[in-house]
Design goal:
binds iron/sulfur cluster, 6 strands, about 45% helix, about 350 residues
Amino acid sequence: MKRWTEEGQAPESTNPNNAYGSAIHYAIALTEEGYTDAEAIDLTVEKFGRWIGPDEMEVLALDLETFHERDYVGVKTVASEDNLKVPLFVHNGVQIYYRFTLDRLYQRIDAPASFLHIDYKSSAHKQSDEEVHKNPQLWSYNWAIHEYWPECEDLHQSYDQLKFGVVPTRKNAEQRAQIKKWLITQVKAILKAEDVNPSFNQWCPWCPLMESCSEPKRTAEFAQTRIAELAPDGSDVSSLAAGDMETYLADMYLFETVRKCIERYEKSVKGVLRELPTERRQQLGWGLFPSSRDVWSAQALVEVYRELGPDFFLLVKMTKTNIQRFFGKDKAATDRVLRHSTKEDASPRLTKLKT
Ligand code: SF4
C-alpha cells in the first residue's frame, strides 16, 4: 500500500483547549532529540508560553519526569509525533482522507508483526477504563494504523494518562470495520451540512486557514468600530463602569479572540517578509538589519559584582521560573533556594470563575 505523509496536522493537533497537550508533546520530542528536561521546558515555554498558565509550567516538569519513567524495551520506534493520513472513502470522485497524529508507535523486535501504540494524555481529568475502550480517537487510530502498516497483525494500545497511569486497550477487525463506517457517516453528515459558510469563532486564532480567511479581518474591523464607538477619544473608557457590563464583557471576549488573530496575522506576515529576497522586501518598504542583544555570562556578573560590591544585588533579579529551570529535576535544591524568598502583596488577581 502507498503511504502518505505530509506537513499538515490532524484537526485535533492544536486548539486553545489542548495547548498544554501540544506543549508537553513538544517538550517530550525535544528530550528525545537530546535536550535536557530544563532546556526542553525552556524551548517549550518560548513556543507555547502565550497559551499555557503559570501552574502548567510546573506541571510540565512533572509530566516529563513521568514520561521518562515509562521506558519501553525490546522495541524499535516506528512513528513519533508523526502526522499521517490514510484514504477513507471517495466522495463525488474526490478522495477523502483520515488524518491522524501518532504520539508513539513501536514495533516489537522479537515479533515484528506486533505493534504498540502509546497515546500520551496530559488532561487533569481521569478517563475511566470504559471511557478509554470507547474513546473514538483511539479506536479510529487503531483502524488507521492497520491501514497504514498492513504488516501490523497484532496491535496493543496504551492510553497513558501521565497524571493517572496507563490503560491498555485493543480492538478486533470487526470493531475496526465499525469505526471506519462511523467515520464515513460523520464526514458525509458534515459534507451534507447546509450552512458551511465560515463564521468567526473561538477557534479562529488556531485555524490553518486564518491568514487567508476573510472572517477574522471582517470581525477585526467590526471590533475597531465598536471600540471607537465605546471610547470615542481612543482612551477614555471610564464611562464603561456605569454601563451594561454583560454587553461589555461579551465584547471583551470577542476582542480577545480578535487580538489573538491580529497578533498571529502580524507574525505570519512579518515571517514572510523576513524570508523574501532583499530586493522584493525593499520594494515593499522593509529592510533587515543586523541586531544584537546584551548577554551576561556568569563570569561577566562576577566582574560587575567586583566593581559594584553589595549594590550589585539591587541590580539583579531572580525568578522562580529561572531557579526551577536551573536545578531541573533537583526539587530539593530548588526548594532550598526558594525558601529564602519573601512574599509581598500585589494587586489582586482578576480571574474568570469556572461555571
Ligand atoms: S479562520 Fe475562517 S475558516 Fe478558520 S475557523 Fe475562523 S472563520 Fe472558520
